[in-house]
Specification:
This protein has 241 residues and is mostly helical. Helices cover 65% and strands 2% of the residues. The chain contains 10 helices and 2 strands.
Length: 241
């Protein structure tokens, strides 16, 4: 009896910016990246509008936005570029997706906040919260699967992990906790949605990623041999931001 193989772990290639510009199926990758980033930002707005909390970084973004009289998306973009400044001492690569992520997620958040209504009660709020987490995880996998570079916050995670010689999982958790505590102390929207988001995002990305990853076959027209790249999966705490 023939056994049907299960989807294998998604192979994620850490391409330089130069290789990203020469990778196979670049237009398709760029389209998939933008679809993923749009859904990602929209889902973050959906979670905020549920009234049950926000993603850890958005707890901070919302608190700062309220204090400065700006939009959440504007603060998301601003914080992203502050994080990108840390790429230089950490010697992290900045890719096509890194810049696109820094800008477009914030724009998508503001567009989502503009068109989405606030939840009028607990049942609708819970529904919006659950839809937001599922959409966020799927959109995150779609963006990651395009293989055009890590988001600013993921780059910060990997850079600090390398600098401190520590696994990226614990480093990401510490970062998220620091950001969350800071945002909460500043009056950000901490809630049950924050917890559901933190627990549910990783597994959804992990389940979706093998089905949406575009494999890297050629760079500059030359085939990429399998042993030349490392195999990796996103940690349960990883986010494409």
């Amino acid at each position: 009896m023939t056994r049907v193989p299960r989807p294998s772990a998604a192979r994620l290639d850490n391409l330089s910016l130069r290789d990203q510009l020469r990778v196979d199926r670049l237009p398709l990758r760029a389209l998939q990246m933008m679809v993923g980033l749009t859904g990602f930002g929209f889902s973050l707005a959906l979670l905020l509008e549920s009234g049950l909390g926000g993603a850890p970084w958005d707890v901070l973004h919302t608190a700062l936005a309220d204090r400065l009289g700006l939009t959440v998306g504007t603060l998301s973009v601003s914080v992203s570029f502050v994080v990108l400044l840390l790429f230089l001492p950490l010697r992290e690569r900045i890719g096509i997706g890194t810049i696109a992520n820094a800008i477009w997620v914030g724009v998508s958040i503001d567009l989502g906040m503009l068109v989405l209504p606030e939840a009028g009660g607990i049942p609708l709020g819970v529904t919006m919260m659950l839809l937001a987490v599922v959409l966020n995880g799927i959109s995150g996998a779609v963006y990651i699967g395009a293989q055009l570079g890590a988001g600013p916050r993921d780059g910060l995670m990997t850079g600090l992990g390398r600098l401190l010689n520590r696994p990226v999982g614990p480093v990401r958790i510490v970062l998220e906790v620091i950001v969350l505590i800071t945002g909460t102390l500043l009056g950000g929207p901490l809630g049950v949605g924050t917890v559901v988001y933190a627990l549910g995002l990783g597994p959804i990305i992990q389940l979706t990623l093998p089905h949406v990853t575009i494999p890297v076959r050629t760079v500059n027209g030359r085939a990429v041999p399998a042993p030349a790249r490392t195999v990796s999966e996103p940690s349960p705490g990883a986010q494409p931001r």
